[in-house]
Amino acid sequence: MKKSTVFALAGLGAAAGIGAFAIHSYLDVMYKETIPKGLAKRVMEMTDNGEYEPLHKMCEESMKWVDSQDIETITMNSDRGEELKGFLLMADKPSKVFTVFAHGYRANHRGDSANFFKYYHDKGFNYLAVDHTASGESGGDWVGFDYYESQDMLKWLNYLIDRFGEDISITLHGVSMGGATVCRMADKVPPQVKLIVADCPYTSAIDEFTSVAAGAGIKKTAPYILKGMNYLNKRLAGYDLADTDVRQSVINSRVPMLFVHGAADDFVPTYMGEELYNLCGNEKDILIVDNAVHASSIVVDTEGYQKKLDEFIDKYIK
User: Fold this and answer.
1) Distance CA 241, CA 239 (A)
2) CA-to-CA distance for 112 and 107, rounded, in angstroms?
3) What is the reported pLDDT for 223?
4) Could you tell me the maximum CA-CA distance found in the chain, to the nearest angstrom?
5) What span, in angstroms and rounded, lies between the C-alpha atoms of 206 and 92?
6) Among 8, 40, 130, 144, which residue has the least CB neighbours within 10 Å?
7) Residue 181, Cβ neighbours under 10 Å: how many?
8) Which residues of the chain have a pLDDT value below 70?
């Protein structure tokens, strides 16, 4: 066999391998969590050394209290026709203040949202935790990585305003993908929103995927894999991953923003939260929690986190 033929076949084989990895990665990352584990998830699991166990335990303990409360389940349809679920805990005394919480990737209202139910309830706020598209009890097939989630969250805000009146005050709080979601809403929120808390947000899905790939040792082929994933995403999920970039929304933020990030976060690197803090065009503050890995600032320094929340919220919610 000629060398040119061998090289051509090798090139085709390499391209096919990259293509297969891109397809598996795409479905594993973007499609609702009902399919067997793909290559991308296996790569991520290889880097998991149990450091998130304290976070999982905190969520479980938090839900014991939440499950003892009178939670109203709300159903709403997205503009895409998907059925979305929200979970509302009203304050013990009548209140015109609401917190709306956006959870992280592959989570739901029983995940990182759970760790803030009691905190906001104790402040006398009403608390709405939603299940994003393709997550929890909500419908939908494709994760939006803030693109669809931010659109749906704006609908949830309108729902609260229509139901409880235009004189309500709203705080937005999001973690990880939820942090990016509330960042992307920052230049679009109605006047009822008084502040945003963005915990470990990424700057864009492309930046986040590139960081995860680099952490897994996939560097040279990562641009080709991401290009293949985005090609599929535009045709299947209906949006461009480039449209998940939250920077411009943060620059044009209509409300004050508090950024929180773990100093030991190597999943959504700390520099992403710091970059967004520096870009924010409104009043702002930042909390960097020493020794906290991804989404774990509330676990590592519960008291410090809640103190910073108190200071920031009390400044803008009277």
Assistant:
1) 6
2) 7
3) 87
4) 82
5) 42
6) 8
7) 31
8) 1-25, 33-49
